[in-house]
Amino acid sequence: MAVHTSQSVAKAAGDDVARGRSRGTGTPPPPGKFRRALSVHWYAWTMVAPVVIVIGVIIGYPLVRGIWLSLTDANERNVARSIGVNELPATYEFVGLDNYADALTGGQFLGTLGWTLVWTVSCVGITFALGMALANILNRKIAGRSAYRMALILPWAIPGFVSVFAWRFLYNEERGLLNKILGGAGIDGIPWLNDPTWAKFSVIAVNVWLGIPFIMVALLGGLQSIPSEQYEAAEMDGATAWQRFRHVTLPGLRPVSTTVVLLSTIWTFNMFPVIFLLTRGGPGESTQILVTQAYKFSFEISPRDFAQSSTWGVLILVLLMLFAVVYRRVLRTQGDNW
Amino acid sequence: MTTAAHTPTAKAAAPAGARHSSRTPRKRGERSPVASVALHLTLVIASVIAVFPVLWVLLTSLKPAKYATTTDFFRETTFENYTNLIKDTEFLTWFGNSVVIAGLTTVLGVFVSATTGYAVSRYRFPGKRGLMWTLLITQMFPVAVLIVPIYNIMSTMGLINQPAGLVITYLTISVPFCAWMMKGFFDTIPREIDESGMVDGLTPFGTFWRLILPLAKPGIAVTAFYSFITAWGEVAYASAFMVGDENLTLAGGLQKFVNQYGAQWGPMTAASVLIAIPAALVFLFAQKHLVTGMSAGAVKG
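YS: structure for the whole thing
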């Protein structure tokens, strides 16, 4: 991991003199740039050392190994393993970029990527729109506001896998409550999780349900930080409610919304439990997103295909990092200091 | 002079009223009864959708198992699902596993990352931007990119099916997250306090330890709590690394009740309630600070 990659040495050195200098008294001017930086910054570096070390050991090392595995043909049968007292050495071989070529030219990865993008965009879009609407309503003076707020946050407070099982209970085709209600209204039951299209709809609905509280609470915080003078000024200029929303609320929420959109895009793209626990990617592979498919390669099929799984993992990471970089660049060009 | 203060409002209201002559001029913050009803209706519908699935599981857990899938709200309220769950299944073992694993993850995560949160909040130093980006990027690490290599490393070290293996794995999630969150909380503590510590001759670490840490306790509590919940609710690693009934965590255990051959809704709903209620209570208590930390850490990055 490239941890110490900053370009801001000069800026930083100037800024921290007050703190760093107290340690440096009495020492002669250090010869090298690095020595000087060390004498100024050693406190900060010591403080961040534990995290840097831990990240290096338990994230950096596995990451490097993961990238290495993706360049091999490793699977369950040829990795190093111990059976009883016998230690079997690894026999997998380096295959270069074959796995990547297979993934990017075969239909499966691109197909799964397509649905993953649909899933991410629709989940984040719907969640954000509804969260924004609810936050704006809750930001008004309205009777019972804190009770509503409490109720609306509840989905966030329940551990995700519990909620997902609750939804599975509701979605159950023969005995689930949703179909009983439909039946009571004389409508045929819907195969919520057993029909490819309905399954897609169902998993998105659950994820939206799970995701609204975070966005709503974050935006509510953002709304409360917009000075009310801005609204008064807008109102004085005769702005309609929509114009006020468009020209005061949205710009005022920008710092918060850019962050929550970035976070929820990443979280949704990688949302393992909803898909895994609701449909296991089924029926067929219709709801499989990249993460659950990669998991399936290494933990659900036999023999476990570690190389393929790692390849997908690396590709997911690359996609997300590209997204983050582009996102940040777009924000920059629009003048955000982010 | 006091009357003068009101004039701008009056002036503002007048032209607005004149333009929309059909509507009576309204002061800011007031709204028509129709709008009120619409707002309340929206909120009620949204709240019902938010609460109902959870409430339904709670109600079902209090019905005899054979009525689990009936639509009656109350039917022979009983705790038999709970007693059966505790007597006949490994629920308590799973619960214990989850407590130990999530607890250790939290303590280690907070302990390792506290000074980092402080350093990135207070100092500018070479490598800071890189570190901040690493913290952010590791949060977007999909399970998929680390799960296989970690699984292989753990399996060569004999740590599959061991709580220790899962704790180490969870630190990959918890450490970057805790550092990120705590930076947000440290940012809210005024820098003058650090400066006064310096003036009194405390070292940077002394300032952190004696002055800032006590002030940041609520923030640390929230961070710790959230990382506990994250580990408590983790599914992918837990499902892959823990096999065998006695080693499961709650996320794995609950899957036992619902498999493709059918579901034992009685114990499942009871277990859900027992897992959710304590978490939910503390969560609702902590949530206000939660978003502050998350968004503050990110916005001022």
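YS: worth flagging: The radius of gyration of chain B is 26 Å.
IM: good catch. Also The first strand of chain B starts at residue 258 and ends at 259.
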